[in-house]
């Protein structure tokens, strides 16, 4: 089964949501927390991560309805309690005075909590938004100005006209990665869904761990070729722009799309990849084949020059790939970018199995040595992934976002606040193995992209 959603036409009723903010507060930890300055790791501090992660969770109203005042008070109180063990999220981020890194000044300054109302209904979130920023006002407080003093965490509870609600949550990416923010959200939600108001040390599973020094460069490590370490990592290398790629993505309008692949479709992709490949079907993960398929559909739909080098960059969790492993509850940035790279001609003509092999190999390359190279590189240079020919993919389908229950039930939709040129893989409500592919594509390529995406998995036309 397939669900496909792309843009709405301007003549429909899905214009930008009207949102009225009722109240905005600064929420501080409910108990005293340490007052000190904490250094962020080399991975946390890299230039690439100086942007916000913004989640939008949609909750349908239960049959008995919700008492808005009580629910709002519980969510707000739970945020205050969650900020006790996660107190750096209530701090303020600044540049380190004597180096290139970042640090957090922790003195319980607080997070932002907003209550708002909107004329939207829950059903409107079943489809992709009509344009990239249609839902921007559902998280009106931006956390992208953290180096100018903005709080690194913002939460907005918005009541919809049909009794449903959305929860927008923004994190500064330099403080936590997807897994860390997912753990925080589930702990925060669990506090809100319980009646008791005491906070015990054992309430948070896993217990949050700072330990950012574990992702700093080793003072004892000698790289074989420190000067060229950035060049050994393809994610940092620039490639020639043979087709005006950069200007196209900055000048053309992007149209959001979302296509849902259920277990049957993902198994079909595995069969197609296996048919021409050397591996057995079970040797490919659903992520590897889906990532390869999305990458190929995207590149082909853009009609790029055949010699243009394209890259798929995707986050690889390194918690268990470094030695020793990072402790459970480590909520800092513990990922590096896997990089699959090929020219457009080979990506398209050599088929799904070849692309899947490239993704698989890129993932398998990430070991302790690879991670330490990246740490050294970003700590000694301003290395940043180039954007030419690049599709960046982030896997939100494994973060536990679909379980975040604030006492309103599990979310019926999970996604980003704004759709972007980043591809995000999302969980699907009540479909355990299904994945929703969320991506904004240049408008003149969107129909071809969706057609190729559906065709590759042999999905029936709607």
Protein described:
The chain has 462 residues and is α+β, with helices and mostly antiparallel strands. Helices cover 25% and strands 24% of the residues. It is built from ten helices and 16 strands. It has helices spanning 42-45, 68-82, 178-193, 245-251, 263-276, 286-301, 344-349, 351-364, 368-380, 446-456, and strands at 2-5, 19-27, 36-39, 52-59, 92-95, 102-106, 111-118, 153-159, 165-172, 254-261, 309-317, 335-343, 390-395, 413-416, 423-428, 431-442.
Task: Give a quick summary of the entry.
The chain has 462 residues and is of the alpha+beta class. The chain is built from ten helices and 16 strands.
Distinct helical segment count: 10
End-to-end span in angstroms? 11 Å
Q: Could you name the ranges where pLDDT drops below 50 across 5 or more consecutive residues?
A: 7-14, 224-231
Largest sheet: 7 strands, mixed
Number of strands: 16
Strand content: 15-25%
Helix content: 25-40%
What's the arrangement of strands in the largest beta sheet? 1-10-16-15-13-11-12
Q: Gyration radius, to the nearest Å?
A: 22 Å
Mean pLDDT score:
89
Structural class: alpha+beta
State the order of secondary-structure elements, H for helix, E for strand: EEEHEHEEEEEHHEHHEEHHHEEEEH
| Bulk shape | globular
Oligomeric state of shown chains: single chain
């Amino acid at each position: 089964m397939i669900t496909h959603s792309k843009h709405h036409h301007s003549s429909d009723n899905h214009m930008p949501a009207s949102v009225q903010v009722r109240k905005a507060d600064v929420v501080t930890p409910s108990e005293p927390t340490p007052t000190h300055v904490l250094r962020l790791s080399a991975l946390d501090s890299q230039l690439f991560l100086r942007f916000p992660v913004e989640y939008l969770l949609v909750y349908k109203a239960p049959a008995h309805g919700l008492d808005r005042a009580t629910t709002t008070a519980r969510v707000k109180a739970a945020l205050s309690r969650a900020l006790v063990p996660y107190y750096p999220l209530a701090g303020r981020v600044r540049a380190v005075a004597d180096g290139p890194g970042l640090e957090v000044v922790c003195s319980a300054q607080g997070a932002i909590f907003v209550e708002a109302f909107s004329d939207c209904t829950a059903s409107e979130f079943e489809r992709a938004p009509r344009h990239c920023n249609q839902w921007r006002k559902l998280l009106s407080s931006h956390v992208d100005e953290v180096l100018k003093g903005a709080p690194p965490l913002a939460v907005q509870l918005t009541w919809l006209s049909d009794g449903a609600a959305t929860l927008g949550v923004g994190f500064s990416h330099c403080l936590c990665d997807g897994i860390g923010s997912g753990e925080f959200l589930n702990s925060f939600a669990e506090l809100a869904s319980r009646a008791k108001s005491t906070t015990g040390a054992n309430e948070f599973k896993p217990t949050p761990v700072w330990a950012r020094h574990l992702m700093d460069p080793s003072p004892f490590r000698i790289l074989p070729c420190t000067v060229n370490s950035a060049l050994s990592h393809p994610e940092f290398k620039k490639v020639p722009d043979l087709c005006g790629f950069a200007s196209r993505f900055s000048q053309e309008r992007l149209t959001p799309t979302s296509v849902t692949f259920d277990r049957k479709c993902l198994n079909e992709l595995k069969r197609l990849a296996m048919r021409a490949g050397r591996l057995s079907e079970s040797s490919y993960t659903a992520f590897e084949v889906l990532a390869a398929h999305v990458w190929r559909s995207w590149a082909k739909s853009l009609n790029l020059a055949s010699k243009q080098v394209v890259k798929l960059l995707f986050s690889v969790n390194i918690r268990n790939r470094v030695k020793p492993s990072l402790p459970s509850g480590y909520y800092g940035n513990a990922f590096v970018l896997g990089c699959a790279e090929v020219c457009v001609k080979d990506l398209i003509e050599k088929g799904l199995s070849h692309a899947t092999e490239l993704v698989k190999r890129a993932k398998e390359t990430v070991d302790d040595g690879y991670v330490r190279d990246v740490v050294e590189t970003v700590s000694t240079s301003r290395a940043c992934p180039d954007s030419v020919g690049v599709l960046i993919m982030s896997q939100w389908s494994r973060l536990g976002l679909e379980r975040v229950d604030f006492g309103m039930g599990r979310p019926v939709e999970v996604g980003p606040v704004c759709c972007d040129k980043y591809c995000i893989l999302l969980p699907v409500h009540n479909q355990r193995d299904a994945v929703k592919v969320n991506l904004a594509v240049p408008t003149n390529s969107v129909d071809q992209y969706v057609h190729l995406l559906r065709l590759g998995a042999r999905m029936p036309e709607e």
